[in-house]
Amino acid sequence: MYLTTEALKTFREEGLLRQLQLVEPERALALREVLQREVLERPSTAESHKDFLPKMQFENDRHLDSRLVFELCTLPEIIGPITQLIGDNVMLFRSQFFNKQAQAPEIPWHQESHFWNVEKRWVTLWLAVDEVTQSNGLLQLVPGSHDSTREHVQIPVDTGYWSTFKWMANLKHSDQILDCPTAAGEFMLFDDLLHRSLANTTSSPRLAFAARYASPDLVGVHENAYPGHRCLLVSGSADKSPLHFAPPPQNGPGLADVYAAINERPKNQVKARVT
Ligand SMILES: O=C(O)CCC(=O)C(=O)O
């Protein structure tokens, strides 16, 4: 996948590229099954994650411990466009699964720059592992809002938002909200845009995955993470970087194993699961 000059201009102005297909729905479904079984149901084995709260051990920075997550994050369909946006040298410095269970509440409006005291020079990959609809945790964005970090206000306790969020941004009257229903296996790339995800009002979980990429010279990344935090180089070199890098993880199955499993299924079983 190669971004046109027009797409690069859109990203500069709106901070967003959407409807990019990573895998077709059949593969997204197979990927979802293996991610659930091999990643979301097994805590991270990364040394630096041992002091994480229990939920984080399953959902945060799994690119440091799972071969499958690492391979997913480094697919050419993702890294190609990201190098066009950031340059040839690229590191992955954070990732997170957003596993919105049935009836899970809203994640409020926010920008990562409010929480991370680092320069606004990263790109977020947001992948819909499940199809994302109006009712199961729709992602909404404000295109063009990456020009500044908005004021965030403290959320009063017991207001029913996603429990890890203590701050939320207030929107301006002029902000144009974009609904982003997304097919399973489709992804978006966005700058530091205001975004939120609505409550999941259905009876099924909705899984999405976000990974954050930047040039390896983005300083302050470790200080705002956790002790022992490491980055992963995913393109080019990090020769002059003061940051600490981890080797690619070898644990568990990789993408080839996921797709081999699809080919081994009887044809009618594959079809039945896709529809
Ligand atoms: O997927 C979601 O529900 C929220 C995603 C999000 O807030 C993020 O990527 O920062």
Please name the defining characteristics of this protein.
Jelly Rolls, alpha+beta, 8 helices, six-stranded antiparallel β-sheet, disordered C terminus, binds 2-oxoglutaric acid, 26% helix, 275 residues, 23% strand, four-stranded antiparallel β-sheet
Task: Note down, in words, how this protein is organized.
The chain has 275 residues and is of the alpha+beta class. The chain has one domain: Sandwich (Jelly Rolls). It is built from eight helices and twelve strands. The strands form three sheets. It has a six-stranded antiparallel β-sheet. Strands 3-10-5-8 form a four-stranded antiparallel β-sheet, with no helix packed on it. The chain starts with a helix and ends with a helix. Bound molecules: 2-oxoglutaric acid. 2-oxoglutaric acid (AKG) binds next to strand 2, strand 4, strand 10 and strand 11.
